[in-house]
Amino acid sequence: MAVVQVIPVMIPDLGEEEAQAAAEAIRSGWVAQGPRVARFEQEFAAAVGAGHGVAVSSCTTGLHLALVLLDIKPGDEVIVPSLSFIATANAVRYVGATPVFADVELATGNVTVETVDAVRTERTRAVIAVHQGGVPFDTAALRKATDGWGIGLVEDAACAAGSTAYGAPAGTGARVAAWSFHPRKLITTGEGGMVTVDSADAATRLKRLREHGMNVSAADRHASKQPVLEAYLETAYNYRMTDIQAAVGLVQLGKLAGLVAQRRQFAARYQELLSDIDGLVPVRDPAYGQTNYQSFWVLLDGFRASRDEVLTELAARGVSARRGIMAAHLEPAYADATPGPLPVTERITRESLILPLHHKLTEADQDHIIGVLRELAIR
Fold first, then answer.
1. For this protein, what is any one GO molecular function term (predicted)?
2. How far is the C-alpha of 364 from the C-alpha of 369, rounded, in Å?
3. How far apart are CA 81 and CA 41, in angstroms?
4. CA 195, CA 84: separation in Å to the nearest integer?
5. Is the distance from CB of 137 to CB of 111 less than 8 angstroms?
């Protein structure tokens, strides 16, 4: 029997240049947090329109530190979308606060001013809003609303590097945002993340929080010609990135614009090919911005087959698709939560799937994928 060639849902764009950069970091002797991390912080912040960058071990730890920075404590409520990877809600529990689930809009999969306001209470201290799958939320509207309510806004930009809102990078104007460099994202360092902020004081505090609360970094101690006796100013964490990761990240960052352009080209072709198949609604740009298409998802809207039937048939035909974005409130970890109605969230997580999109995708691959969907549409 012939072996079916599988079309992966995602492949990180890693090559010899990244390997050489990692090797140079190793040869330099700086394998922990050092000068390459500092350079990556500066260049990434500039690329996403932020004032300052603080590299961390993951986006999840970045979200945790963002909530510590906002002084979120037990007894506080933080509004989050259930329609997100579970780390978004988990970060709220890390600080002892209560995640309160808001619904999302159907077109973007993002929270809105209206869905947040519907679950806001006198205990609400912050909102974590997600640029879901790279689709930017309405930054202008939600930033204005949270300012008016007097609560914090953490932007979960895990998937948003290269996306834009109102003509600027998605991170422009964010008081605090957390980013991911997991292999499923456009640019990767294997694992790792970044927190961007608009305040130098906030950046200083975050750098202390990620490094055990020390008032001077290892790089600064190494650079000093005199003995440095560090102090530990608060109870903090070990959430550092390594220089090996940062070396890879610097190479990846140089590819970002090209990767976004390529993904948008493939996404436009998907949208064109799907336009005459009844019952399938592909993700698109919102009116106020452009997505990097970190994920290309399709919503089933009266399609002949169920989501799971579509995934099963695609897998049988060599296509590695995925279920749509998860709903945290439906997972066992949140069985004790008592959210209000989340009809759009539950529909999206039940009736959507993610199609392959990566730098090695070909038009022939897309034609094959669309062909399978066409067959299912007429069965």
1. transaminase activity
2. 9
3. 28
4. 18
5. yes
Cα 173 → chain centroid: 17
Pairing, β 124-130 against β 322-323: unpaired
Give, as one character, the DSSP assignment of residue 215: S
Q: Own/partner pairs for 93-102, CB < 8 Å, 24+ apart?
A: 94/64, 94/67, 95/64, 95/67, 95/68, 97/67, 97/72, 97/73, 97/125, 98/123, 99/328, 99/337, 100/124, 100/339, 101/328, 101/329, 101/337, 101/339, 101/340, 101/342, 101/345, 102/127
Candidate list 73, 144, 185, 255, residue with the active-site label: 185
Helix (H, G, I), strand (E, B) or coil at 377: helix
And the tokens for 365? 């691959």
| 194 vs 19: CA distance, rounded Å | 21
User: How far is 200 from 177, CA to CA, in rounded Å?
Assistant: 14
Q: In terms of Cα–Cα distance, which of 331, 365, 379, 163 is closest to 259?
A: 163
pTM of the model as a whole: 0.95
Going by C-alpha positions, the residue among 97, 181, 117, 109 that lies closest to residue 138 is 109
Separation between Cα atoms, residue 356 and residue 113, nearest integer Å: 31
Across the range 5-10, mean pLDDT stands at 92
Q: So what's the pLDDT on residue 2?
A: 45
- Alpha-carbon distance 343 to 336, whole Å? 19
Residues 82-124: pLDDT tens digits? Answer: 999 999 999 999 999 999 999 999 999 999 999 999 999 999 9
Between CA 273 and CA 371 the distance in angstroms is: 10
Residue type, 53: G
Residue type at position 23? A
Contacts of 261 (CB under 8 A, 6+ apart): none
Distance of alpha carbon 311 from alpha carbon 307, whole angstroms: 6
Give the C-alpha separation, 128 to 78, whole Å. 7
* CA atoms lying within 13 Å on the CB side of residue 323: 15
Q: What DSSP line would sit under 244-280, residue for residue?
A: HHHHHHHHHHHHHHHHHHHHHHHHHHHHHHHTTSTTE
